[in-house]
Structure formats: structure tokens, C-alpha cells
Specification:
The chain is of the alpha+beta class. It has three domains: 59 residues, Alpha-Beta Plaits, CATH 3.30.70.250; 302 residues, Aminopeptidase, CATH 3.40.630; 84 residues, Macroglobulin (MG2) domain (Immunoglobulin-like, Sandwich). Helices cover 28% and strands 24% of the residues. Helix 4 runs parallel beside helix 5. It is elongated. Bound molecules: zinc ion. Zinc ion binds next to loops.
Length: 487
């Protein structure tokens, strides 16, 4: 009896051991073979057409099968797909669910003027809270909303650290430092959903777990939450599967899963203008459409935004079928579709992490991926704030409100503010000194919109110093610039 018990434990341990997954990099595959791999239901982790390889997940004892697929392959380091024992505490340098909770609560406590305490937006399949964090300053007026989400796929912790880094950057720089932080929080409302699939992420703890889907095991071993969204759900079987045992199983029906329902309802409620839904890995930035090989009417805008957002990190950008493979039922397509909420400029970065857990033992690697993504987050906000105009949210109406130039600067006697304004309504221009005292105010009607020069003869008695010029329009937008008066 006792012997049998010990044997059972040994067998269980052995079973766990042999079922470990490895990432295997296949070289020299043509596009046709890549499509076949996907259609055959392989767990494709990354496709890099530029550098000519595909990474797939294979059980440890099946990595040899790669030889049947291509003459050249490489088994990637163990730490890319599992947690090394020395990092077993707290998922190495990634953030466990508990560490996440602590981080966001602390940030909210230390910056209660900018960060709300995490709030539950609904429950997962296993009744865990999915929470969101709101970040904005107390400034009022119309503020477009932008979403940042991570970990809809449970084995992608690199997506989560990028959000933590960005939130830290915003609070660190709000009072000085990088002025873009104040610009963003004064003019936009950000929501973070750091763990969109909490059940799967808990399941993968203490880290190194390779479970991707949610924990609804009623059909198989979970539903791929990023194939469960309700636009063109189940359009075909490329990149999404009706087989519950596959990693891209899309579920019984569109929005069958509590996690996607919660995010859908929260999105409808908050009406973001744009979103970055983070994944790992592969150094890419994806935008709609994913379900078929067609471009959106906004493809020029997406391309233009993506080019600016990836100027620093050189991520490859395009639709999923341009840079990876076709997918249907994904979050981006639903967000952009305008089906249940006005269309959202929704994009999905694939962080350039090493495999799924490859930065676990090296904080400099975590810093590297965060440093790659931070400018992308900042740029998205700046693009939204410049381009989102009046009226229906999500409509890009140019020109939006801006102080395009202050000339000359520094100035002695007469200054010209060039202001770009939206059509209609009244624009107010106000000048403040550094103590916030208003020293000048003027207003103008601008029925057609466009660029206007507003000249101001600076009173002789006004002391030398730094001044802010603030323009507001009748739609609640606000834009500012600074200039120096010399004597
Ligand atoms: Zn993913």
C-alpha cells in the first residue's frame, strides 16, 4: 500500500516532468508550410517572416518531430517556456497576480490624484475578479479614453510588465520630468486591465506555465479568449479552431466566456477611442482586419500611426495576415468593427520578449522590453490627443485644437500665437504667469476651422518670465504652449 502510494507520486512527478513544453524554432519554411502548420492546429507561438522562422510549442518528448517539418530547427532555451527552479518565487522578474495587486494598489495610494484604486469590472469563469485601473488627472473637459490591456493569453507575462512600466512612467513624470506625461493625463483618461485572463494566469503560477486559454474546461482545456470576440467569430478555421483541444479554440459561440463578456461590457461602457491590447512575443504591432485578407477603410491611418509608434523599436507592423496569419474572433476586430460601440482604433503589440518566460531571471531584459514599448504607449496617446476631434468619439477630424507655434520666442514686445482650431464654436486664448494668474484673454469665432494667427502686444508693465498660453474651444478641448518674455 505504502509502496503503491510512493510509486503513484513518482509517476505523477514523472508525468509532470515529461509534459513540459518547449519552444522549437523552425527555419526554412515557406509560407505554405506555415499556413499548413496553423491549419493542422500546431501551437504557433511566433511567426517571423522577415527573419524566416516560425516558433512552435511542442511537448518536451516530441521536439524531435521538428525534424520531420524542416531540415533546420533549434530547440529554444528551456527558460523561454518554463520557469527555472531558481526563479520559482514570484515568477522571477515578472509580476505574479499578487505582485500586480500590490503594485497597482500602492501606485493608487501614492498618487491618489492620478490613479484610482483597482476596481473589479466583473468575474472570470472561476469567479476571480478582473480589475481595471483608471488613470487621469483632475483636469476637466472632454477627455478621450484609451485602453491598455494585457494577459488575455495567460502565458504572456511580458505583456503585463509593459503596462506596469507605463503607469510608473506616467506617475514619475507627471510633476516635471517628461512633459508628455502631464499632457497625457491632463487630456486623456487611461484604463489599464493588467490581467484580462486571471484564471489562466493563476494556473500558470508560480510562473513558467504554458497555459494560454481560460480555465473553462467544459469542452476541452479552455477557450482562447482572443478568438471568442463577436465580430466575424468563427469566420473560418484559419487561426481559430472549433476543436476544444486546440490552442486557438474559439468557444461554443461568440462571447461565450465570462472574461470576454466582462471586457466587452466594460469597453461599451467606457467607449475608448483607442486601445493597445498587449501580447507576447515577436516584436510586432498588429491592427485590423484579422479575419480575412482585406484592409479597413482606416488602413492609411493605422499604417501611419503604426509607423510612428514603432519608429524607435522597429517592430514589424501590419494586419495579422500580413505579418502573422489570419485570425477571426480577436479583440482588435471587434473593437474596430463598430458593432456594439463606436469604432475603436485598437491595436495589438506582440512584445519582443524572449519566448513566453525568457526574461524571468534578468531584470535588464524586462527593462529592455519595457523600454521598447514605452514610446509606443506614449505615441499612441499623443496621436489620439492630436487627432481626435469634436463630435462623435473616434472620428478623426482634422485639424484638432493646437497651439502650433509661438513666435518670436523669447519675445520682447509683440508675439504671434498660431493656433489650429476645429471648425465651429468659439476659441478662447488665455495667457497665465507661472503662479497661475491670468494676464491676458481673447476670444475668436472660427466657423471654418484651420490655422489662425493671434497677435498680442505685450504690455510694457508685464514682468520678464515664463508664461503659458492656453487655448480652449467650445467642445472642451484644451491645448497649451509656453513662451518667455524678456526685458
Ligand atoms: Zn497572445
Amino acid at each position: 500500500m505504502r509502496f503503491a502510494f510512493v510509486l503513484a507520486i513518482v509517476v505523477v512527478m514523472f508525468a509532470v516532468d515529461v509534459s513540459a513544453d518547449r519552444l522549437v524554432r523552425l527555419y526554412q519554411l515557406d509560407r505554405g508550410s506555415v499556413t499548413r502548420l496553423i491549419e493542422d492546429g500546431y501551437d504557433v507561438a511566433n511567426v517571423d517572416i522577415r527573419r524566416g522562422f516560425v516558433d512552435i510549442v511542442l511537448p518536451d518528448d516530441k521536439v524531435g518531430n521538428a525534424a520531420l517539418m524542416t531540415p533546420r530547427y533549434e530547440v529554444l532555451p528551456r527558460e523561454w517556456s518554463e520557469l527555472l527552479s531558481e526563479n520559482a518565487k514570484n515568477a522571477g522578474y515578472y509580476y505574479s497576480p499578487e505582485e500586480n495587486w500590490k503594485f497597482w494598489c500602492t501606485l493608487a495610494a501614492e498618487h491618489d490624484n492620478l490613479v484610482d484604486t483597482p476596481a473589479s469590472i466583473g468575474k472570470s469563469y472561476k469567479d476571480r475578479d478582473i480589475y481595471a485601473i483608471k488613470m487621469t488627472s483632475s483636469s476637466t473637459g472632454y477627455k478621450p479614453t484609451i485602453f491598455f490591456t494585457a494577459l488575455i493569453h495567460a502565458r504572456e507575462p511580458g505583456s503585463n510588465v509593459v503596462l506596469i512600466d507605463f503607469a510608473n512612467w506616467l506617475t514619475d513624470n507627471y510633476d516635471g520630468g517628461d512633459t508628455r506625461a502631464a499632457y497625457i493625463l491632463d487630456n486623456a483618461t487611461l484604463y489599464f486591465i493588467p490581467i484580462a485572463n486571471p484564471d489562466g494566469y493563476y494556473h500558470n503560477m508560480p510562473g513558467g506555465g504554458m497555459h494560454r486559454k481560460n480555465m473553462n474546461f467544459s469542452d476541452g482545456d479552455g477557450v482562447d479568449l482572443n478568438r471568442n470576440w463577436g465580430y466575424k467569430w468563427g469566420y473560418d478555421d484559419t487561426g481559430s479552431s472549433s476543436d476544444p483541444d486546440k490552442e486557438t479554440y474559439r468557444g461554443d459561440s461568440a462571447f461565450s466566456e465570462p472574461e470576454t463578456q466582462v471586457q466587452r461590457d466594460f469597453t461599451i461602457d467606457k467607449k475608448p477611442v483607442a486601445a493597445l491590447n498587449y501580447h507576447t512575443y515577436g516584436s510586432k504591432l498588429l491592427y485590423p482586419w484579422g479575419y480575412d485578407k482585406i484592409l479597413t477603410p482606416d488602413s492609411t491611418l493605422f499604417k501611419d500611426w503604426a509607423a510612428q509608434m514603432t519608429a524607435g523599436n522597429k517592430y514589424e507592423y501590419g494586419t495579422p495576415w500580413q505579418v502573422l496569419y489570419k485570425v477571426n474572433g480577436d479583440q482588435n476586430d471587434w473593437c474596430y468593427s463598430g458593432q456594439d460601440v463606436s469604432k475603436i482604433y485598437s491595436m495589438a503589440p506582440e512584445v519582443g520578449d524572449k519566448g513566453f518566460w525568457g526574461s524571468q531571471k534578468d531584470s535588464s531584459e524586462i527593462e529592455r522590453i519595457c523600454g521598447e514599448c514605452r514610446p509606443m504607449n506614449i505615441m499612441l496617446c499623443m496621436l489620439v490627443l492630436k487627432q481626435v476631434g469634436i463630435g462623435e468619439h473616434g472620428e478623426c477630424i482634422e485639424p484638432a485644437l493646437a497651439v502650433s507655434s509661438v513666435y518670436p520666442n523669447p519675445v520682447n514686445s509683440s508675439v504671434v500665437f498660431t493656433v489650429t482650431v476645429p471648425a465651429g464654436g468659439v476659441t478662447d486664448l488665455t495667457v497665465y504667469d507661472t503662479s497661475g494668474r491670468m494676464v491676458h484673454e481673447t476670444e475668436m469665432n472660427n466657423p471654418t476651422g484651420g490655422e489662425y494667427d493671434i497677435r498680442w502686444m505685450i504690455p510694457r508693465e508685464l514682468p520678464a518670465g515664463v508664461y503659458s498660453v492656453v487655448v480652449t474651444d467650445g467642445f472642451g478641448h484644451r491645448a497649451t504652449s509656453r513662451f518667455t518674455v524678456i526685458r
